[in-house]
Amino acid sequence: MGIVVQKYGGSSLADADAIKRVARRIVEVKKSGHDVVVAVSAMGDTTDDLVDLATGVSPLPPAREMDMLLTAGERISMALVAMAISDLGFTARSFTGSQAGVITDSVHGKAKIIDVTPGRITQAIGEGHIVIVAGFQGVSADTKEITTLGRGGTDTTAVALAAALEADVCEIYTDVDGVFTADPRIVPSARKLDHVSYEEMLELAACGAKILHLRCVEYGRRYGIPIHVRSSFSQLEGTRVVNTPARPDQSSAPSEEVTMEQPIIAGVAHDRSEAKITVVGVPDKVGEAARIFEALADAQINLDMIVQNISAAATSLTDISFTLPRTDGQTAMTALARIQAEVGYDKLLYDDKIGKVSLIGAGMRSHPGITSKFFGALASAGVNIGMISTSEIRISVIVDENAVDDAVRATHTAFDLDADEVEAVVYGGTGR
Amino acid sequence: MGIVVQKYGGSSLADADAIKRVARRIVEVKKSGHDVVVAVSAMGDTTDDLVDLATGVSPLPPAREMDMLLTAGERISMALVAMAISDLGFTARSFTGSQAGVITDSVHGKAKIIDVTPGRITQAIGEGHIVIVAGFQGVSADTKEITTLGRGGTDTTAVALAAALEADVCEIYTDVDGVFTADPRIVPSARKLDHVSYEEMLELAACGAKILHLRCVEYGRRYGIPIHVRSSFSQLEGTRVVNTPARPDQSSAPSEEVTMEQPIIAGVAHDRSEAKITVVGVPDKVGEAARIFEALADAQINLDMIVQNISAAATSLTDISFTLPRTDGQTAMTALARIQAEVGYDKLLYDDKIGKVSLIGAGMRSHPGITSKFFGALASAGVNIGMISTSEIRISVIVDENAVDDAVRATHTAFDLDADEVEAVVYGGTGR
Asked: The whole model's pTM is what?
């Protein structure tokens, strides 16, 4: 009877009734003989409301104070969950990120966890309490300041606690039944995956599936924490993120951790949050491309796909295209404009009417022909491919924004991912 | 140029505009060359909203979690005040009670401050920052749990900080202009006091004036902190609480700290929050009264006035009456009913249609005839006196609830407290 770590997002804690339902679920696990540690997000729209309050007093609030403000959200929800548990006759102790020993670096607004020292948690567990921890927050190692972990932070808190406590499992409760082969709003016949590997989940998260945050999956993989993504609104089994599931062409015997679905492909992800910038007419000399990417790095911009065309022999000029988050578009264009004279490029093109469609599966590693089947499906659906990027277990293409749905559906069908029956689910992102 | 400590209550921080106004006021003091440390309450109705949330999930929430919940209120307001200050081009650092070094005992919901270790505050001051501290909250010395100080807590936080930082003054900002000779809603001609002594202020607070909390005044007296009660909605001088002001019949030379008003009487306070219990027919033997008050003490009930009649010689029975907060009425009646057989009293009477009117002034110590003038004024106004209690600088009477206003007005006039002109103010309580 080990420790179970659970995470509940804002949509699972929207109001008093939701909080009571979560408390009953927590108590059930405690009754079954496990110790329970729960990471919670802020209730429903609390974070948005707090951000509105901040912008009401200052257009550009200091990051330190923004963290101080936002961390009030989990403080409220964790105390309420503890109260609801107490009302069921069990005892609970809530702890802030700082009290729970979530130690971070000191980058306000997007701090990274560098250690977890869960002394107060283990003491409370030892005393028989259920432990509720504020997600999304920590305290900086050097300055002892309150920090927040940024988007998906509570998922990361949960997995980090599971690692520090050597928990049996980290259950991520959300408002959908698990991880699907595609967004069911686009592909009604999408199937829920029973198992998915860490690396597949990483690629899915990186390619636009909002169900689990990248950092949470990375943390889980590094420490080997089984993650179970499931709905707080049902008792159904969700999706278990585990070590690389055995493939049909591998000889290992199936175990409980091994998926029996034998998928070559885990799913089709899509992302409409990126934009594409093309730097036209870059002199094809050593160091020019480096100068461009240095300028973008200095502006703290994370690039995704990068393509450089072969230079036209007559001119010795080349074009460099890359994709980046739309929210960084303006910053990137400004940074590049500043170095135009120095680099001597011709002009900049900006396109945010694009979408990315990604095919992901650990099985594609050993299966030739995946790429041609993928591109064939897109061609049959009349979808034009803009840029291409691949990894060992992923192929991504940039297409026209309006072609994303067609591309996802055609790919999903081409790889036999469609379920026999359509499941009625709503696919949505988790809060923080 | 020393340190100025300020306190702003919830009504001064009701919304974004109010917070910006408070920030401007804080910055003015900083500009004048002082270091500024500010204790803030939760915004407007935040605390009530949080209490509603709690009762929504549990009818009897654990005190520890209630403290965890309520402390989110000041966390929000302090971050917003710091942001608003930053928007004015100054830097501010907000600190929770725990970060600010407000060390308390471990009684959740009504913790007492036992020490203040303001290391982070003095460091922030040294770095040139304005410091904003969450009022009403602290951290327990032994268990390191988050605690709240109970009613009036932020006033107490402010004075405790002023003492620890050896501040020049502790300014308590509220929604009225200061301390008045009576509640202006009852006595429109009530005057604002320019000065009042700690002991007078203590009696006023204990007798129903809600402008400053008792514990705050006690703290101020013990450490000799000048307290300035004033309005956050005007630039007027308020009321300064100082050491005993010189009286006209004393020979000390007037100084800045000495009031020139020469009042024998500081004011008339009233309180409608008490009830009266009479234990009828108590056997007049040694130990019977002690047993009654022991039972009440065991039930954690604070008594105010106590009267025991002379026993009727024929029966050797006596009646014992006392007043207590109405909110404790039910508990007290239950505790007394439980010992009826043991004590052998006849019956219990409960009356919550009473009010207390108190005449307060350090000058009455050396002035005979105050009592007779007070009682004469009440008699002329047709007010019947129920119970009487006195201290060195106070006379209190219990009257019929409906006679309170008449009693206050008659007393105010009899002691020449009426102002020539009526000031337009609203007299209200401070939040917490």
From this structure: 0.83
